[in-house]
Amino acid sequence: MTRQSTIERAARLTGKGPAMLGRFQVDGDPVDFTVGEEDLDRDATFWRTVLAGYGVGPGSRIVVVGSVPDSPWLEPPRMAATALGGSYSNVDAWSWDARRLDMYCRRLPVSVVLGLGPETVQALASLTDVQERLGPVPTLLARPDALNPLRGEGVTNAGVLVPLGPALAVTLPDGSGIAYDESEWLVEAADGELVVSTRGPRHTRFDRQRTGVAGAVVVADGGARLVLGS
């Protein structure tokens, strides 16, 4: 099979295949799912609202911390940043790439750091003063398990980016709490654990899928908000 024959065969396919394959784990058990192009487009629409609320616009610089397997979750924020006129750069989630995060935040006026995990925080602390480096960044959206390491380094202003199985929740810019795209997902609590069901026409459907994330759901006038447990 040549490159040309592959392109010709792909052009004859009916329907749209998945854009990405995702995998998350619950209690060590892997759950695989597919994400379609339309899923990414709708997710990016939600993220445009979130990032615009954080002041992202033309000229904004976003640093996304993650790895290739995180793409089903992190590609929509990247797409949204581009649509708003900003630019993004990637930092690998492993400790060896903390130098890149240090360099971006030292040399550029970074608007948002998104996806920061504990390993990167610990590696960054071995290179520089974390509060000095990340303190000037207006918006930090870190994984929940990175919050304590950040506080230990004097960084107390971080919001959260929460993988919920196939979904993603985030601290909203208006300070109202942690939310998710309610047009795409329904999040409920079952015995203290958050479970996720699809609402939108996702490429892969879920029904009360366990996430392994402890928490509760509070519904107010502004919509559903998550309260994370320990």
Descriptive account of the structure:
This protein has 230 residues and is α/β, with parallel strands linked by helices. Helix content is 30%, strand content 34%. The protein has seven helices and 13 strands. The protein has helices at residues 3-11, 37-53, 71-83, 98-107, 118-125, 130-134, 147-152, and strands at residues 18-26, 29-36, 61-65, 87-91, 112-116, 139-142, 159-164, 167-171, 178-179, 185-190, 193-198, 209-220, 223-228. The strands form three sheets. It has a seven-stranded mixed beta sheet with strand order 4-3-5-6-7-8-9, with helices on both faces. A four-stranded antiparallel beta sheet has the order 10-11-12-13, with no helix packed on it. A two-stranded antiparallel sheet has the order 1-2. β7 and β8 form a beta hairpin. α2 crosses α3 (71-83) and α4 packs across α5. The chain is globular and about 50 Å long. 37% of the residues are buried.
- Can you count the beta strands? 13
Distance between the termini: 52 Å
Shape: globular
Count of DSSP-assigned helices: 7
**SSE order in H/E notation?**
HEEHEHEHEHHEHEEEEEEE
Average pLDDT, all residues: 94
Low-confidence stretches: none
Biggest sheet details: 7 strands, mixed
Widest sheet, order of strands: 4-3-5-6-7-8-9
Strand content: 25-35%
Coarse structural class: alpha/beta
Q: What value does the Rg take, in angstroms?
A: 18 Å
Give the proportion of residues in helices.
25-40%
